[in-house]
3-hydroxyacyl-CoA dehydrogenase
Amino acid sequence: MTALDLSSPVAVVGTGTMGQGIAQVALVAGHRVRLYDAVPGRALEAAEAIGARLDRLVEKDRLTAAERDTACERLLPAADLADLADCSLVVEAVLERLDAKQELLRALEDIVDEDCLLATNTSSLSVTAIGGALRSPGRFVGLHFFNPAPLLPLVEVVSGFATDVTSATRAYELARAWGKTPVACADTPGFIVNRIARPFYAEAFAVYEAQGADPATIDAVLRESGGFRMGAFELTDLIGQDVNESVTHSVWQSFFQDVRFTPSLAQRRLVESGRLGRKSGHGWYDYAHDAERPEPHTAEEQQRPAYVVVEGDLGPAGELVAMIREAGIQVREEDEDHGTRLVLPGGGQLALADGQTSVEFRDVVYFDLALDYRRATRIALSASQDTSPQTLAEATGLFQALGKDVSVIGDVPGMIVARTVARIVDLAHDAVAKGVATEEDIDTAMRLGVNYPLGPFEWSRKLGRNWAYALLDDLHLRDPSGRYAPSLALYRHAYATDKREGSTS
Ligand SMILES: NC(=O)c1ccc[n+]([C@@H]2O[C@H](COP(=O)([O-])OP(=O)(O)OC[C@H]3O[C@@H](n4cnc5c(N)ncnc54)[C@H](O)[C@@H]3O)[C@@H](O)[C@H]2O)c1
């Protein structure tokens, strides 16, 4: 099925950042593209800016000069909204205000044909609410491109309550024909990516607010252990603290101030003080040309332990046992039903972060989750005031013997990567249960939209079915605000497995 034939033009209304990007995508896909902006002259400026970007593609050999020339000929700035009458699709990318979008759509409905598909690129408004302005909301759909639209492959195709299945399918096929990777999703706050990604920022900020570690250390752990491309602090400095906070705020408000989406006080202070990130020269980090980039905390070299005792199954950290052996450290294995720990020569214990704090056990050090313990270059350890210096030194020496940098953080239950991943997995399960999208589409959206190394369901499978539930359940005990309360969907997922495996514990 082809989405739209190339004989009738498509239109982009609102020719700012996103409008220009979307227009470029449609042009390169072979469409004639009409551009309209409320500010006179801006559509023409946008056409010139798109032409200049196509020139750069020619310089980089990604487009031939002839392709650029025909694309530019197909770019048609419009002086009046009425000039869009012959379009088979109109994508609006005007300012993010419900009244502005509704007014525009009402006007468009009187201009275009009945079978013209109408789409919005809104990132935070409800598609259903915007479409409420239309006499025929069935033809209205969300086409949520990511910035920069010509480069980023993901498009969330959002169906409002009134969107016809045929309109959603047309939009989906169109995005595909334009070389994008569409995912289908329901009209909920944040759609897929902006909803499920919230804990990535929130948990990093929470660890910082709890005095668990400084931004440079948290970022390094998220990158080097979690496998995320960037840490939450450096990423929000790049996005802009105001932009990132406004998405968080909008999702939180739209969910009627659901505690799981509570914005960060520390980030609020940054925004209030104008520390917006790279664009203002200072955010979490200082970008003055002579400013020193803070280094992550990295522990001093410690002696490797001569041996470790492995009690039980280390679950997602099971690979460590082979790695410890390969590093020439003797491993004694003990089959302990209740234990999933390493015991160090001094008698202290080393356990994977599980949502408990180090004060609850005598002399324990927790280590954080890694995406892949072999490839991780850094591991975070957390110790309490009751942890003996010997245990911390032995734990540090053990990971250093495996070739890792070690960052010692405060006694933060769930540490950094573990709590972040558990919450992302939980929100993903919750979203599927609530009909937001399929597991496959959520995985695709998080990999392509925010570059996660694994989709939440891929991660969930790798970690084992009970892992995220058990961790969040423990965190919820220690912070009963509801922020960490595992969803019913995650509970079902974990419990169903237990039953299949013959245990109901
Ligand atoms: N910037 C992003 O990263 C991003 C990402 C995804 C989605 N979005 C969404 O895309 C939309 C546009 O965002 P942007 O960043 O491109 O904004 P922008 O400010 O760069 O551009 C908006 C353009 O719309 C024009 N405009 C305003 N009202 C209009 C109207 N009634 N009719 C015609 N033109 C009008 C403005 O003159 C301006 O040129 C918003 O809904 C936003 O939420 C933005």
Q: What stands out?
A: The chain has a mean pLDDT of 94.
